[in-house]
Write a structure and sequence with these properties.
With 171 residues, the chain is of the alpha+beta class. The protein folds into two domains: 115 residues, no CATH class; 33 residues, no CATH class. Helices cover 37% and strands 8% of the residues. Strands 1-2-3-4 form a four-stranded mixed β-sheet, with helices on both faces. It is globular. It starts with a helix and ends with a helix. 13% of the residues are buried.
């Protein structure tokens, strides 16, 4: 398999992963919480903004595409981040290395935005995948959360393990 074919396959897989995450974040718009999460899911980008919640998990830009062939301008970026500026919110802007529109990375850097965490994206084709898990410890049972308290306990464990803010994660 040639390098171009492998790179194209990895790019498709990265977009599939991003689409899955974008769908999860877009669903926050349907959560009946105060303050409400405002979701703009357009052809240009997915923008999730939660006023009065200064948490980057609830304020994010994904799937940004530029209009036309011109490089992304400062004005283009400012239009996208206007709600975050209006509400004085921290936010994150997801980029897939090498697939972002021309000029976007430079405009984000000009605003002072930098890569954070250095997370490496990994993908796995799931067609035909047969996961193998070790057997659970004796006395362990897996089931769906049957009561609201079960779900709250699960969120608590997730927050403790991954050092996440409870209110944002519970949403």
């Amino acid at each position: 398999m040639g390098a171009d074919v492998v790179l194209d396959h990895l790019t498709r897989m990265a977009h599939a992963v991003e689409d899955g995450w974008a769908a999860a974040w877009a669903s926050l718009g349907a959560v009946p919480a105060i303050p409400p999460t405002l979701v703009d899911d357009t052809a240009a980008c997915l923008r999730v903004c939660t006023p009065d919640m200064p948490e980057m998990l609830l304020n994010i830009v994904m799937r940004y595409t530029a209009a036309g062939l011109a490089p992304v301008s400062a004005a283009d970026v400012e239009r996208v981040i206007a709600p975050y500026r209006q509400h004085r919110l921290p936010f994150q802007w997801w980029l897939s290395l090498g697939t972002e529109p021309a000029g976007l990375r430079e405009q984000l850097r000009a605003l002072g935005l930098r890569s954070w965490g250095g997370a490496t994206s990994m993908t796995l084709p799931l067609a035909g995948w047969q996961p193998r898990y070790p057997p659970p410890a004796a006395g362990t049972a897996f089931c769906l959360a049957a009561a609201e308290r079960d779900g709250e306990d699960a969120v608590s464990v997730i927050c403790d393990v991954f050092f996440l803010p409870r209110e944002a994660t519970a949403r």
